[in-house]
Amino acid sequence: MKAQLLKWGTIAIVLLGVALFAAGVSPYTAKAATLQEAPPPAGTCELTWKNGGGGNIALYANYVTDAGLKQTLQDYNLLCGTGVKVTSGCILMPNSNVSALPAASQTPLYLVNIQATSPWVYSHLNGQYNSVWCDGNMTFAL
Questions:
Q1: How far is CA 109 from CA 13, 21, 35, in A?
Q2: What is the pTM of this model?
Q3: Buried b (16+ CB within 10 A) or exposed e, 21-53
Q4: Contacts for 31 with CB less than 8 Å, ≥ 6 apart
Q5: Which of 76, 78, 114, 115 would give a disulfide with 45, using CB separation of 3.0 to 4.6 Å?
Q6: How far is CA 6 from CA 11, 19, 27, 84, 85, in A?
């Protein structure tokens, strides 16, 4: 009986992995985006998975230079804390280009929610992409 339960449990896990792979979502991404427990701190935005992650703000990753990261971010949007003004979306731009946008429109990117559950995404964003620029604060159009 135990062996049969173990066999079916293993099959279920493999099928879940295949389904996530076929959908283009890594298990880390799915877990990171659906375990949202609370909104991010006031004045910040965090990544959430588009399907069930709780966010509804478009994330524009046009300036992301890493092709793998850019592809992965297509499955994400943003959830912003109170005080962040957003009309239609926010731009993710490398820290090396921050001088291209007004400082007043900078909104910190809160990465705590993905640090442990999506280490690949976290490692590619942390220290390289620390902010988003949300159009509600901008004096120019997206």
A1: 33, 27, 17
A2: 0.69
A3: eeeebbebbbbbbeebeebbeeebbbbbbeeeb
A4: 117, 118
A5: 78
A6: 9, 20, 21, 48, 50
For helices 2-22 and 27-34, the axis angle rounded to 10 degrees is 90
Structure-token pair, residue 91: 């731009």
CB atoms within 10 A of CB 99: 8
Q: Which of 55, 34, 56, 59 is nearest to 114 (CA)?
A: 34
